[in-house]
Amino acid sequence: MNILEELSPLLAAEAGAEAHAAGIEAADLEQGVWLRLLERTRRAGPPAEPAAWLRTAVRTEARDARRRARREVPYDQAGAPAPGRPYAGPYATARTGPESEVESEVLAAEERRALRAAVRRLPGRCPRLLGALLSKTDPTYREIAGELGISQGSLGPVRSRCLGCLRRMLTAEVAAPDPWGKER
Fold it and tell me: How many Cβ atoms from other residues are within 10 Å of residue 119's Cβ?
């Protein structure tokens, strides 16, 4: 019996047990583990203890899937709600009815206010740059560069640094400090 036939039932059981907690389909988890096995076999040959290796690989693949799920944000939840649609931000609740619509609008407005306040606290020319980029008039990079007195080629890197600073600032405000007083 070859290694695939030998490990298939064990992999199906392990993937079925870990998939729900990882938030992915068991078949996707199995496919990821088979790929790991193929890569490992090409690099270092088959594992000495296939069953133990497989259990470890399933858990590793599930952990990686959970990490990916935490980092990925669906596009429709990233922005403000469309008119007539309920708020879908991080403070959304599962309420329905007329009060939930008002509450959704209030929460969305609060989120926008907090974001604008954070942008105003950014250092240097970041507030002006991000304000220009998010302007309702939708200016071109050339117009923004002329307005701010920056070369057009440096707008992208400066924008990237400003967004990174804003991301760190907002993360620090939201993250709870750990027991030693340091922020995550």
Answer: 19
